[in-house]
Amino acid sequence: MNKQLSLFDILTAQAHCLLQAETQANACALDKLVDDAFIEFAHCGRTSRKAELLRRSPACPVLELVPENFKLNELIPGLAQLSFQLKSVNPVSGEVGHILRCSIWKRTGQNWKLVFQQVMPARYQQNDD
């Protein structure tokens, strides 16, 4: 039996994929997930477009990112808002933070692509573990 995935399942899977270092380092994989009109407001205040996203490589050291608390809001058919929290852990310093992300996804044919993302500032604290 072929179970059809829900919109929640599709977009959370794609959000997980975008967080993977392998995806972030692969321009072809990013191109499939990110719309040509993409814009991001980063936590540092920087604004990025798709071309910049495709050119940049993952920051070193790569943070371990654990997404949680996903919320989906279908704005209109073919347009959805996905918000979630990220727990980020710096593997070198042990710093831990929580980041809020809000993204807008657009259906293009049979696929969903990321068109907008806003990242809220993270406050880090030393990991005592």
UniProtKB/TrEMBL annotation:
Under Gene3D superfamilies, the record lists: 3.10.450.50
Q: Which superkingdom is the protein from?
A: Bacteria
InterPro entries per the UniProt record, alphabetical: DUF4440 (IPR027843), NTF2-like_dom_sf (IPR032710)
Q: Using the record's annotation, list all stretches that form the DUF4440 domain.
A: 13-114
Q: Write down the Pfam families for this protein, in alphabetical order.
A: DUF4440 (PF14534)
UniProt name for this protein:
DUF4440 domain-containing protein
Q: Which organism is it from?
A: Undibacterium terreum
